[in-house]
Amino acid sequence: MANPKSFDETEVLGTALGVFLRKGYSRTSIADIKKASRLSAGSLYFAFESKQDLFLRVVAFYIRYVVVARIERYIHDQGFFDGVRSYFESTFKNKEYGRCGCLLTITSAEPHLDDVVVRQVKNGFQIIEQEFRRIVQLAQENGEISRKRDPNLIAQHLFTSYQGLLVLVRFGKSDRYLKTVTDAALAYLR
Amino acid sequence: MANPKSFDETEVLGTALGVFLRKGYSRTSIADIKKASRLSAGSLYFAFESKQDLFLRVVAFYIRYVVVARIERYIHDQGFFDGVRSYFESTFKNKEYGRCGCLLTITSAEPHLDDVVVRQVKNGFQIIEQEFRRIVQLAQENGEISRKRDPNLIAQHLFTSYQGLLVLVRFGKSDRYLKTVTDAALAYLR
DNA sequence: CTACAAATAGAACAATCGTTCTAATTGAGT
DNA sequence: ACTCAATTAGAACGATTGTTCTATTTGTAG
After folding, report:
1. How far is CA A78 from the centre of its chain?
2. How would residue A2 be classed by pLDDT, with cut points 50, 70 and 90?
3. Is A136 helix (H, G, I), strand (E, B) or coil?
4. 8 Å CB contact of B165 and A162
């Protein structure tokens, strides 16, 4: 045994996430990751198998600690309608990773991705949609939404509006515009 | 005078559009364009100033002869509701450029674009939104939509749903799913 | 038929990409 | 203190990028 690892892998994942969000998968170079993480090529390739391997782990990190964690927290703290509104608004108000869109959304726009990557992104999408379905059903039990409506349909609508919103966020629409869009998406649920 | 141009520039723009739609701006190489158009680097750089110049002209071509032309035709032939439905469905049913998403949508997801490109894409988005607003107002005059509703809001909703749909199309959701999403977007307008 | 410039083809350029390799450094176990 | 393997840094590799350069071909005007 000698020379224990001098950096926290999770921390690197968070840093890399920021870079991937800003530049996208294929246009992010290892040089970018090196600069952001202050690690050398040697260290990076010692810790991660390849650029693709690093990205896959970043996606998993993102789904778990950004997307799902955020949804849970908002819904738990504020209930369905206000929680969804806060979640939608976090896409353009959040300081940490805000205004960059969603890692899954921007990745799905990239061409000729490896099958493994596609599967990982698909999985992420399903998790988000499933979360939406879950909170809709919860809201129906609470009486916040009528039990007569189809939760699948509502979840789909939520998901599509969310994706549309993210495109507009990425594209730099004004906060006022994005707020109106959020309102319209929520109005459909009343 | 000698040796007149042996290829049609518009034809090249159409071919290049197909490549850019499949691969995105930054990941499309001049080699790709060469292969698709069967032109040499010399010819391409004789006709177009640079890769960026070519792309700008492709975007203009796309807005005019694909997006706007398609909207006009569907609305003219089928009226508002069926027209919008057909237009939405063309994003995943059209054989020519279908299933690739929208050139503007996928470009807006790309990082660090030149200001000139950003402006061109922004312009395209505005044109689409403006077209939506125009056909909504037209539908209000026809009585297809209540005159009491705010056409700007409806156009915004249409635009956002359209962008969300395009993300899902690009991502390979099933026709059935996409049709449901389209229905939900239209239901909001009734 | 000759001359000439527009148009073309393809080799060559520097820059950047992801990745690998080789040393040098590090610190715990003996 | 010495050993030895885990870890690190950074040079180097071949492949690919957008672009430029140099010939060569081409068709028409005189």
Report:
1. 20
2. low
3. helix
4. no
User: What is the mean pLDDT of the segment spanning B119-124?
Assistant: 94
pLDDT score for B1: 55
Distance CA B59, CA B107 (A): 10
What does the alpha-carbon distance between residue B180 and residue B188 come to, in Å, rounded to a whole number? 13
Q: What is the structure's pLDDT at A4? A: 67
CA nearest neighbour of B89 among B61, B72, B70: B70
Candidates A88, A54, A64; CA nearest to A74 is A88
Between A22, A160, A188, which is nearest B181 by CB?
A: A160
| C-alpha closest to that of B109 among B174, B25, B190, B37 | B25
Measure A3 CA to C19 C1' (Å): 24
Query: Could B112 and A27 be called an inter-chain contact, meaning their C-beta atoms sit closer than 8 Å?
Result: yes
User: Would the CB atoms of A170 and B101 count as touching at under 8 Å?
Assistant: no
Which residue lies nearest D22, CA-to-C1' measured?
Answer: B42
| Tens-digit pLDDT profile for residues B25-46 | 999 999 999 999 999 999 999 9
Residue B145 has pLDDT above 60, yes or no: yes
